[in-house]
Design brief:
With 103 residues, the chain is of the alpha+beta class. 28% of the residues lie in helices and 28% in strands. The chain starts with 7 loop residues before the first strand and ends in a 19-residue tail after the last strand.
């Protein structure tokens, strides 16, 4: 993870055979990335992970998120990373001294 990155997420997990869909919301930290990977693997055959980030997430941020979950995609788990146009937030570097604004 790029040091200082602040990026919230919303994730849904499911499969073609699953009746229920699980949702997680939080901040992407190294711990949370690992938890999301583990949970996606636990869904089993046909697993799908959809990750949503705010519309204002930088291209760097989206690229970083995709790279963190590339191993899942290579293992056969469907992974989609999308910007949510209705979710406003700008990712910033934590050390910039600027405050995080949520609207």
């Amino acid at each position: 993870m790029k040091p200082g990155r602040i990026l919230p997420f919303r994730a849904t997990f499911g499969s073609a055979r699953a009746v229920d869909v699980r949702t997680r919301v939080g901040w992407l930290t190294p711990y949370e990335v690992e938890m999301l990977r583990s949970e996606a693997r636990s869904v089993g055959s046909g697993a799908q992970l959809e990750l949503f980030v705010p519309a204002g997430a930088s291209e760097d941020g989206v690229t970083w998120v995709r790279s963190e979950f590339e191993a899942l995609r290579r293992s056969g788990i469907g992974v989609a990373v999308k910007r949510d146009a209705a979710w406003e937030f700008r990712d910033i570097e934590a050390g910039s001294g600027r405050r995080v604004r949520r609207t």
